[in-house]
């Protein structure tokens, strides 16, 4: 590792730490209605859609609006993908997708997974990329932010004897502000920088070029920069081109690589500070940030160490190198982003194992925009509950008592994706149709299937890429896994928000467990690792761990 590599690592982690309170404060102002620059546009949207922005919703109404909105989005994307051959902005004359693939892709982008069983430049028209997939890049990220806001209000609003709090805000207002004030402005800024650096942004037909070897090469075009910006900032990860951010038309320079990497974590990290401001306790937000950052650093450095130990460039872009590839793998798997600038399948087995573990923990090491933080808050509440049991007192978080209803919802939210990962992988390795898609045998073959279901259930979207997932078996099974991974967590979170908002808040006492200090950060990390990691230890042992030992002995698959 060179001095420049070390400086880049310090600069990248340092930038996130510095930018977190700056962007976090801005987002808190947005959600609390203190930013007025876009008020006319915001109010016009409400009038056009017939929305009463002042009408607050209970958790049931809020959840129903989310589900209906996402169902409409799914049908919208599905229709465009199946009929893209008849739609404009299709200079390559790509035909519509088959129903199984269209179902998988629509599910993928609506759930913010962005799993890709297709090659973008050989499958998707510009219209599909922009109107279907690009729109969901914004809306799926904004949807997760709205759920987080509902949970924050559930925890921070206080019932009093004369009035019980019941509402959690307005879904449409939260969705509009998240999109209009945060995701769109940041995406415009990043897209302009990407274009300036050489990321393509056009509507041209593909160009035939002659290589220095005298062979014909087809150079793809398209409005890539605008899609890449929200792909990273919205923790979506779906590549405009098949090789994602390893493609020079997506990621042409060291600056675009660094800014894209920074964008993956930027909003999820800043939301921890937003959370602290909105609940009136900044130290609570910093404690969660510290737990996330420690786990991110440990995972990233293990990936770097294992890749440097192998020290080979196979599967890595020569412009990017080992360190940047390793850091990207650590960040993208921790942030529910799924974009890649190298082939994870070609990295050291332990590197792929750590990437899988990051997702298996529940995508709460910063995780996706909004959903990473509300997932971590579930672990915070669980930690408080377990700590209360150990000391023999009623557990409380932010002055509100934690009871069996909340714990049942948390267990459901943790177990549902975990069950999908293990059962889906079991089906994959125990059926002929599941095994027929493998390109490797032995432990690496198991890792390919295990990673696919982990990525789908965690709504991540990255893959080991040796598995041919464009089959009816995997398109349907992974599609349903994505749905469960998203909504079997989202709905319990909303139920917890609805339960907590009605509870009366009591002031802290001498025996109240502090949830904003170093001791609690250690406890939180311990619960995450024990609950999350141990669930998958047997599967990881048979996959990447065994493969690492075999590779050390010179046995490759």
What would your notes on this structure say?
By secondary structure, this protein is an all-alpha fold. The protein has a domain at 371-552. The protein has 18 helices and 4 strands. The strands form 2 sheets. It has a two-stranded antiparallel sheet with strand order 1-2. It has a two-stranded antiparallel ribbon with strand order 3-4. Strand 1 (207-210) and strand 2 (216-219) form a beta hairpin. Helix 10 (282-310) runs antiparallel to helix 12. The longest helix has 35 residues, at 518-552. The mean pLDDT is 92.
Proportion of residues in extended strands:
under 5%
Write down the overall mean pLDDT: 92
Distance between the termini: 28 Å
Describe the biggest sheet?
2 strands, antiparallel
Strand arrangement within the widest β-sheet reads 1-2
**Helix and strand run:** HHHHHHHEEHHHHHHEEHHHHH
Strand-pairing-aware structural class: mainly alpha
User: How many beta-strand segments?
Assistant: 4
Detail the poorly predicted runs: none
Q: Overall 3D geometry?
A: globular
Give the number of helices.
Answer: 18
Radius of gyration: 23 Å
